[in-house]
Specification:
By secondary structure, the protein is of the alpha+beta class. The chain has one domain (4-162): Electron Transport, Fmn-binding Protein, Chain A (Pnp Oxidase, Chain A, Roll), CATH 2.30.110.10. The chain is 26% helix and 37% strand. It is built from four helices and nine strands, in the order ααββββαββαβββ. Strands 1, 2, 3, 4, 5, 6, 7, 8 and 9 form a nine-stranded antiparallel beta sheet that branches.
Length: 163
């Protein structure tokens, strides 16, 4: 599993765009999962960077987490609201791993409480998903062109310019 700092070293442009758009959207992203009937589901989520990992954690007993328990593949997209992505957008995809480390879950609960005031301290997490990235991309526009940056593990970022 690649850490966030390793990802940012391998894919600095994508990591920076994701971090910027994630922060600009109040941490809100769109999470794509696969439903039990095989159709895609898109749900809002507030992923967090914590202890050098990307975490996909949220309200218990939601269908998106049932989807991930059944099939760990996901795509995470910074919520785009403009037809031309002047500020850029980012997509990260991979698989989640359900981490059952109660000490780490409690450190995360302390972090969330300090960060946003949400008090989950002392509670067990039904699902505590660490994201293992298997690919990523960004789209940025400027001066009549689109720059599409693509990353795959074991490869450097590459930029494709579309006019």
């Amino acid at each position: 599993m690649i850490s966030w700092s390793e990802f940012a070293t391998c894919a600095p442009r994508i990591a920076a765009t994701f971090a910027r758009r994630h922060a600009a959207n109040a941490n809100l992203c769109l999470l794509a999962t696969l439903r039990s009937d095989g159709y895609p589901r898109i749900s809002p989520i507030e992923p967090r960077l914590f202890e050098d990992r990307l975490w996909i954690v949220g309200m218990p007993a939601t269908t998106k987490f049932n989807d991930l328990a059944r099939d760990p593949r996901f795509c995470l997209h910074t919520a785009t609201t403009a037809t031309v992505p002047v500020e850029g957008d980012a997509k990260l995809w991979g698989r989640v791993r359900d981490v059952r480390d109660s000490d780490q879950q409690q450190r995360f609960a302390e972090y969330l409480f300090a960060e946003i005031g949400l008090d989950l301290r002392g509670q067990a997490f039904e699902h505590f998903y660490a994201a293992d990235l298997t690919g990523a991309s960004t789209v940025e526009s400027g001066d009549g062109h689109l720059d599409i940056t693509i990353w795959k593990p074991s490869e450097p970022e590459r930029v494709v310019r579309k006019h």
